[in-house]
Automatic annotation (TrEMBL):
<protein>
    <recommendedName>
        <fullName>Protein VTE6, chloroplastic</fullName>
    </recommendedName>
</protein>
<dbReference type="InterPro" id="IPR002794">
    <property type="entry name" value="DUF92_TMEM19"/>
</dbReference>
<keyword id="KW-0812">Transmembrane</keyword>
<keyword id="KW-1133">Transmembrane helix</keyword>
<feature type="transmembrane region" description="Helical">
    <location>
        <begin position="90"/>
        <end position="116"/>
    </location>
</feature>
<feature type="transmembrane region" description="Helical">
    <location>
        <begin position="243"/>
        <end position="262"/>
    </location>
</feature>
<dbReference type="GO" id="GO:0009706">
    <property type="term" value="C:chloroplast inner membrane"/>
</dbReference>
<feature type="transmembrane region" description="Helical">
    <location>
        <begin position="122"/>
        <end position="142"/>
    </location>
</feature>
<feature type="transmembrane region" description="Helical">
    <location>
        <begin position="163"/>
        <end position="183"/>
    </location>
</feature>
<keyword id="KW-0472">Membrane</keyword>
<comment type="similarity">
    <text>Belongs to the TMEM19 family.</text>
</comment>
<dbReference type="Pfam" id="PF01940">
    <property type="entry name" value="DUF92"/>
</dbReference>
């Protein structure tokens, strides 16, 4: 009875109300903004604004990507250009500024930047890495037992932070080699000689720095190289077994870096190490016999450094020429 009543009255009524809902849904699916008039009113402007914003963001992304790609291509320029050298040094000096500040004064950093740019232009990233390795090891050696060195009065000034004079004195020979290489002096036959002299100059300076600083820190007995008389640590021209060994190992390490970077071969690395030791012995002779003597007050540490690294470069080139002729 109840079922028949539902069938005869409710079912037609239910069907009657389903039809409008179905047609309403169909019409609104075809044009959904009719059902949401507020969106329909705002949509054209909103849609245009969103499209424009998205387009700007996409264009900015592509522009940024293009700048990064161009920067990477510039840094990787082969052979290096002045532009690639300048950009590379700006990036590296910005990232490495905390380390640079610990080892160099403000003007020292400026001088090092010029050296780095010149080095990259002449010898690329491998030459720059060699100089960077020299700086890191040399700075670390200078900081060893700094308090003890200061108490004994033999420490470097400004807590070991070197100024432009020290940077130039340590790199003058390397800069000359870089200029000779850039300008192609001597042609292709001399290209490898300028690289060899460049590596030898920094092997010489690192050996000198490490031997001096380690000798001041750990040298038990210090001898004057001209008379073998025992003298206090830090005396000009004085050497110690500990410092000499440390300097030898430092030159071997840096020459190995030059070899691994493809700048020199194994015989070239051996030449750089030998040339460094000979030059350092000559520097000790100059320090013991002339430095701080009457009439030679101009012969300060920076001048002696220039003489030292120049000797290392010249000896390396002469040894290489003799070997080639043999």
């Amino acid at each position: 009875m109840a079922f028949s009543t539902l069938s005869s009255t409710a079912l037609p009524l239910l069907l009657h109300y389903q039809k409008p809902k179905l047609s309403f849904l169909t019409s609104n699916l075809q044009n959904p903004f009719n059902y949401f008039p507020q969106i329909s009113t705002l949509n054209p402007k909103h849609h245009h604004k969103m499209s424009r914003t998205s387009s700007i963001k996409v264009q900015a992304s592509f522009t940024d990507l293009g700048i990064v790609e161009r920067a990477i291509q510039l840094v990787q320029s082969s052979p290096p250009t002045w532009q690639s050298a300048l950009l590379s040094n700006i990036i590296i000096f910005t990232v490495g500024s905390p380390l640079l500040v610990s080892g160099l004064s403000v003007f020292g950093i400026a001088a090092a930047f010029l050296l780095g740019t010149l080095t990259w232009r002449a010898f690329g990233s491998s030459g720059f890495l060699l100089v960077a390795t020299y700086f890191v090891i040399g700075t670390a050696a200078t900081k060893v037992k700094m308090a003890q060195k200061e108490a004994q009065g033999v420490a470097e000034k400004r807590k070991g932070r070197r100024g432009p004079g020290s940077v130039i004195g340590s790199s003058a020979a390397g800069c000359v080699c870089a200029f000779l290489s850039i300008n192609g002096v001597g042609g292709e036959a001399f290209t490898h000689l300028w690289v060899l002299a460049f590596v030898a100059s920094f092997c010489t300076k690192l050996s000198d720095t490490v031997s001096s600083e380690i000798g001041k820190a750990y040298g038990k007995t210090t001898y004057l190289v001209t008379t073998f008389k025992i003298v206090p640590r830090g005396t000009e021209g004085a050497v110690s077994a500990e410092g000499t060994l440390a300097g030898l190992l430092a030159s071997v390490l840096l020459a190995s870096v030059g070899y691994l970077m493809g700048q020199i071969n194994v015989p070239g690395a051996a030449i750089c190490v030998i040339a460094a030791q000979i030059a350092n012995f000559g520097e000790s002779l100059i320090g013991a016999s002339l430095q701080e003597k009457e009439g030679f007050r101009w012969l300060n540490n920076d001048v002696v450094n220039v003489i030292n690294i120049s000797l290392g470069s010249i000896i390396a080139v002469l040894m290489q020429k003799i070997i080639l002729q043999s």
